[in-house]
Amino acid sequence: MKIDRLARALGLLSLLPLLGLPLSNPDLFWHLSAGRRIRETGALPSADWLSSTRAGAPWVDFEWISQLAYDALYRHGGMASLWAFKAAMMAASAYLLFKTLELYTDSVPARWAAAALWGAASLTRSDIRPELFSLIGFGLVFLALERRRLGRAIPGPGWLAPLFCVWANLHPGFVYGLALIGLYAAADAVERKGRALWLYLAAAAAGSLLQAYGLASLEVIWRHWQDMQHIQGRISEWRGIRLDDPWHWPFWIALASASGAALLMLRRGRRPALGPLAALLFFGFTASRHSRMAAYSVTCAVPLLVHFLGEAGLQARTALRRGLLTALLCAAGAFTLTCSLKYGFTRAFFNDHFLPRAAAEFLARGVPEPSKRVLYNPWGWGGYLGWRLPPGFLVFQDGRYLFHDLLAEGSDALQDPVLWQAFLNRRGVDLALMENVPLRAESTRAYPDGSTRTFWRPYYLSYMPVSDWALVYWDDKALLFARRASLPAKWLAAREYRLARPHDEDALADALSRGEVPARALEAERARRAGEAAEASRSLAAW
Question: In which element (H, E) is residue 150 found?
Fold first, then answer.
């Protein structure tokens, strides 16, 4: 039928952004560093080697198989192969979704509308992450549980042991698979449908214990949950799903619609099966607390929306209902495409908007005796810096759990310039790489004639006082400060920016108009800045 062909075409178009968005996850690089380390040493890491702040501290690398896969893909195909791998992983998740939807309906518009909603809700989790392995494992387990509940044949519990053994060494999301089986097993017990699922849970749990680090991995997972409360205010993706974030709206639509469909079943005298209902509520609640759970939640919510509507007697068979489903499909697809065009698409396989690539090139080229320098860097930049900088040039922090306390300590120190300087001094920082953001503070200047003028000057003038710190590099993303007492004076003199500094144009223009700035020195700094920018453009290979 024409409506079926239209729904299929629109559905495919709506899923293209999910598959085609470039990579942008900065954590990819510390995964690449770990994969490279395993390959070069022939052993799994047991202690940190990338940072100065946690050097030698025990580290449980519970995603080592994912990292080896990333390393192999990058070595043989660069970012293009990693991007293709990400697209293939999302396509595999979509395939499992379709197989689940086929259990509930044969309506083509219904399946494709559900797929479009799932794609829109999954957009924020479609980057390259070890989590993608968990989404496939979770979707596979959910499909098997639903097939069994509906009386379809599935293998015995034996297949879960090897699945969870591999899964537990790919990503800690295996615990959500265990939770899903546990919910269905408990539902069976309540509904007196037997105890077979407890055997499935036992097989999965036994397999998940066969990890390279043993029970230490479970301890780290527990530590993540303990850290969540004080990390949520500092890392956006650790926060719960929010109503004020447009990226999260499809999730709320899916969860609310599935919950509403369950209530409609009750109003029509049909009781939803306890296992699916428990999964819907449990993973919906956890997503409201932690946005990373949203991908697992919609894996349940979207198929169950279709299932509950069908059980309530609202099968999509009339032309009107097909038209409404097609309209939903178009809306979901338009949302996905709009968000992708606004935030995601580039000509490269990796969108480096969040990476200080040019600053990393400067650090790699020009800092004297880097192994003796303590470098401060923001949390999100550490993975890339640790991967790009030469051996011996250690980072301050990256996205691993080892640095949760440092993230909190640094975030608290940034609330006040005095606290910030105390933090840098306490940590022995020689080089501070900071974000170049247009934050300004009010500053009043008094002139010899008694007049005053107020300027809005950049934040770093108070946070990184010129008496102690020299600005030796800057670009649109990053500022690099060097402690005067720690680096050679000749090196500082050749690189310091005293005049041509970012976000301080009004004060500079005022000083120029009063003849207080040597024009030749200013032009020399501007020329040096232009030369550095041109050199960075030449040295940065396209991804």
Answer: none
For residue 341, the model assigns a pLDDT of 59
Instruction: Cite the beta strand spans of 357-439 per DSSP E.
Output: 375-376, 431-435
Helix pair 108-121, 64-101: axis angle to 10 deg: 150
Helix axes 519-539, 357-366, angle to 10 degrees: 100
| 502-527 as b/e: b if 16+ CB within 10 A | bbbeebbeeeeeeeebeeeebeebee
- Residues 294 and 337: beta-carbon distance below 8 Å: no
Q: How far apart are CA 363 and CA 476, in angstroms?
A: 16
Give the chain's count of helices (H) and strands (E). Answer: 21, 6
In angstroms, what CA-CA distances link 365 with 360, 435, 500? 9, 20, 22
Q: Kindly list the averaged pLDDT for each block of 10 residues, start to end, along the chain of length 543.
A: 74 81 94 98 96 96 97 96 96 97 90 89 91 98 97 94 97 96 96 89 95 84 75 74 82 92 91 96 91 92 93 65 62 65 70 92 89 94 96 93 91 94 97 95 90 94 96 96 95 95 94 90 94 84 71
d(CA 335, CA 341): 10
Q: Per the structure block, which two tokens stand in for 6?
A: 């239209």
- Distance from the Cα of residue 284 to its chain's centroid: 20
Nearest-10 Cα torsion for 121, 126, 127, 131: 100
pTM comes to 0.93
Q: Residue 201 carries which side chain, given as an amino acid letter?
A: L
Cβ neighbors of 503 (< 8 A, separation 6 or more) are 436, 438, 440, 457, 458
Bridge pairing between strands 440-446 and 452-458: antiparallel
Query: Where in the chain are the domains?
Result: 2-236+243-343, 355-539
| Whole-number Å distance between alpha carbons of 58 and 110 | 50
CB-CB contact of 453 with 447 (8 Å): yes
Is residue 481 packed enough to be buried (19+ CB in 10 Å), middle (13-18) or exposed (0-12)? Answer: buried
206, 201, 11: which is closest to 120 by C-alpha?
A: 11
Cα 466 from Cα 375, distance rounded (Å):
18
DSSP string, 73-111: HHHHHHHHHHHHHHHHHHHHHHHHHHHHHTTT---HHHH
Residue with tokens 């097989």: 203
Q: How far apart are CA 115 and CA 493, in angstroms?
A: 60
Q: What is the DSSP string of 296-357?
A: HHHHHHHHHHHHHHHHTT--S-SHHHHHHHHHHHHHHHHHHHHHHHHHT--SSSB-GGG--H
CA quadruple 270, 274, 275, 281: dihedral sign:
positive
Torsion of CA 213, 215, 217, 219, to 10 degrees: -140
In 488-541, alpha helices (H): 489-495, 505-513, 519-539
Contacts of 262 (CB under 8 A, 6+ apart): 272, 277, 280, 304, 308
